[in-house]
Amino acid sequence: MQLINLFCLALAGLVAASPVQKELAERQNQKIRIMPLGDSITEITCWRAFVWDQLADAGLADKVDYVGSQYSNPQNCQPKTFNWDQSHEGHSGWLAIDIANSYLEGWLRNTPADIVMFMLGTNDVFRGRSTNDIIAAYTKMVNIMRAANPKMKIIVDLVIPLSFGNQGIEQLNARIPEWARSMNSTESPIVIADCYTGFNAWSDLRDGVHPSLSGDRIIADRVGPLLLEYVRQALDGR
Ligand SMILES: *[C@@H]1O[C@H](CO)[C@@H](O)[C@H](O)[C@H]1NC(C)=O
C-alpha cells in the first residue's frame, strides 16, 4: 500500500514537472531578438550584415533574430554569411523625434525585441531640430522600449559625422554620454557604441552622409562587440 502511494506520488510529480520543463525548454529555444533601429544609415548600409558575420563567427547566429517591420538589403551587401538576417527597423529620411512620437511603440508591439541598437538624429540635425529636442526624443524612445520590455538591453550609437555642417552632430554626440548614464539601469542597461571617433567624414562616407564600406566596417566594429556581450548576457540570464 505504502509502495503504491509512493509510486502514485512520484507519478504525480512527473506529470506536474513536465509543463515546467517544457516551458523552460521553450524559453531556452527562443531566439534573442535584436532590433536594428535607425534611419538610412541603418537601412541602406552594410554594417548590419557585417555585425551578423560577427554573430556567426561567435557561434551565435542560430540563437538570434534581427527583428523589425523591414526586410531588405538595398546595398546588395555581401557579408561572409550568405543567409544573414535582413530584418531591420531602418527608415530612410526619418527623424528621431517622429519615430519617438508616432512609430516606435507600434513597431515594438509588432516585433518585440530583447535588444535595441539604434543610431538616430542625423535627419533631425538636417532639419534644424535642437539638440534638446533630439535628446528628449531619445528619452521617450527608451521609455517606450522599457514599457514594451522592462529588461530591454539598449545600445545607443554616437552618430557618424556628416561631411558638411557637422556642428549639430557634434552637439548631439557631446550630450549622449551624460544622457545615457542618467537613463542607465541594472535591469535595462544602456551602453554607447562610439561610431564617431576616428570616423573619417570623407573616406568613410560614400556621399557625404552614408558610410562607405570602410565606414560600415567601423560601425560594425564599434557596435558588434557590445551586441555580442549583450547576447551572451541574455542567453546566460534565462
Ligand atoms: C550602464 O551600466 C552598466 C553596468 O550595469 C555599465 O556597464 C555601462 O557602461 C553603463 N552605461 C553608461 C552609459 O554609463
TrEMBL record:
Protein name: SGNH hydrolase-type esterase domain-containing protein
Domain (SGNH hydrolase-type esterase): residue spans on this chain: 37-217
SUPFAM superfamilies attached to this UniProt entry: SGNH hydrolase (SSF52266)
Keywords, in A-Z order: Signal
Residues spanning the signal sequence: 1-17
Listed Pfam families: Lipase_GDSL_2
PANTHER family xref list: CELLULOSE-BINDING PROTEIN (PTHR30383:SF2), THIOESTERASE 1/PROTEASE 1/LYSOPHOSPHOLIPASE L1 (PTHR30383)
MF-aspect GO terms: phosphatidylcholine lysophospholipase activity
Organism domain of life: Eukaryota
